[in-house]
Design brief:
Helix content: 25-40%
Largest sheet: 6 strands, mixed
InterPro entries: M60-like_N, Pep_M60_3, Peptidase_M60_dom, TCAF
Number of strands: 17
Structural class: alpha+beta
Strand content: 15-25%
Distance between the termini: 65 Å
Bound molecules: zinc ion
Radius of gyration: 24 Å
Protein name: Peptidase M60 domain-containing protein
């Protein structure tokens, strides 16, 4: 029996409320269309609860607004890699009972519309079978609460969750305990900073209109190291268990070790119109480099990786023998970085904004290259033909004619000579 005094001195556990309000959000595909991104990302909302395998769960739903059916999803993408698919239940008004499959897992709510105007709000009361996990909520949970919660729930929940303004992060209990003495508030602050740097370089701000920041939170989750891989982006961003030390110690989110998560977040921001065939691992670093600068890293990744000599080697070839698309990822990244060195953040901010506004119908690599080249000239108000020719952009000569027809002046300096 715990003394009354001890009870008074212990902070309340950092767990989810049993009654929660959920509002409708745009579906992943609706966001992708607005933002002109290449790929869907998360549109699930965290609940802070876990359900055990084969358990019976009971919840009550009160519909405050709207007629859209919300769904309960059990299982975190990638986290439960043993699970073939997540388990979904349609929710209706009133009390309802479901049975979890043999996997169980963390519980999410999917409550989406394929537009930005459908209203919807539900109140969910989580009842029997919903097991609270340690749930660190930005600006609410204290470090002392976190320690008490981990100790209290370490044998009942396999995972912990962090919730920030822009992210949901799932980590496993073992590593949460291992790094419990770190500053959790700083972790969630830095996760939001990373999303913020990608929003910034994408020209995204505010909460309405075509340039609003993404409505749904980024989902970042641990995955068994035995599953192979390392860190990747998709419907969620995953990091293998062996990388937990980078996610649960804030210093590794903001120093050069943060590159991995900056890069994976970058993948969720790539626009399809100017990411042609072999640039998936290239344009992504427009965003990673924005995070690197955002955190004040004094030396760019290009210099740190000693990539500049690759440029020197490439430029020793005759122009006719250069083929930008055939270059390796480090080399191709330099082209985008030189444009940044010449024109700064505004080039990518305005390119991203105009891509969302104009929604170009480009699908082939040639169409995307033409779109990027003409857009870069129009945004910078410079004729960049010399730069693109030196970089070995193998496009139809008509593209260079179109650039010439813009009657812009050439840059005062040879941008291919820029270094940092
Ligand atoms: Zn990548």
């Amino acid at each position: 029996m715990v003394s009354a005094l001890a009870d008074l001195q212990s902070p309340a556990l950092a767990i989810a409320d049993s009654v929660q309000i959920f509002k409708i959000t745009p579906s992943a595909s609706t966001e992708v269309d607005r933002l002109q991104f290449r790929a869907n990302h998360n549109d699930m909302q965290a609940t802070g609860f876990y359900v055990a395998p084969n358990s019976t769960i009971t919840l009550n739903v009160k519909i405050n607004t709207g007629t859209t059916v919300a769904r309960l999803a059990i299982g975190t993408p990638f986290r439960d890699n043993i699970r073939p698919v997540r388990q979904y239940f349609n929710l209706q008004a009133g009390t309802q009972t479901f049975t979890a499959d043999q996997y169980g897992g963390l519980v999410y709510v999917i409550y989406t519309a394929n537009n930005y105007s459908t209203p919807g709000e539900i109140e969910v009361t989580f009842g029997d079978g919903f097991i609270p996990v340690p749930y660190f909520q930005k600006g609410k949970t204290t470090h002392a609460q976190w320690l008490v919660t981990l100790d209290s729930l370490k044998n009942s929940a396999p995972d912990v969750m962090f919730s920030s303004d822009r992210t949901i992060m799932v980590a496993n209990m073992d590593e949460a305990l291992l790094y419990q003495n770190e500053d959790q508030q700083l972790i969630v602050d830095r996760l939001d900073s990373i999303i913020g740097f990608s929003n910034y370089i994408s020209g995204l701000s505010g909460t309405s209109g075509v340039h609003a920041i993404p409505y749904n939170k980024h989902l970042i989750t641990v995955r068994d190291s035995s599953a192979g891989g390392y860190m990747a982006a998709g419907i969620s961003i995953y990091f293998t268990e062996s990388l937990s030390y980078r996610m649960l110690q804030p210093k590794y989110l903001s120093n050069t070790n943060g590159w991995g998560i900056w890069h994976e977040v970058g993948h969720t921001y790539q626009q399809k119109a100017w990411t042609w065939g072999n640039l998936t691992e290239t344009t992504v670093n427009v965003y990673s480099l924005a995070s690197e600068r955002g955190f004040g890293i004094p030396v760019s990744r290009i210099t740190a990786n000693n990539s500049w000599p690759k440029l020197d080697t490439y430029f020793q070839k005759n122009i006719a023998d250069r083929n930008f698309n055939a270059g390796d990822n480090d080399l191709k990244m330099i082209m985008f970085h030189q444009l940044w060195l010449a024109f700064g953040d505004n080039l990518y901010i305005n390119l991203s904004r105009s891509t969302r506004e104009n929604r170009p119908t480009v699908s082939t690599d040639a169409e995307k290259m033409r779109y990027f080249m003409l857009s870069a000239c129009q945004i910078t108000q410079k004729d960049l033909s010399d730069f693109f020719r030196k970089w070995g952009f193998k496009v139809d000569e008509s593209v260079y004619t179109e650039i010439a027809n813009l009657s812009l002046t050439a840059p005062a300096q040879d941008i291919t000579l820029l270094r940092d």
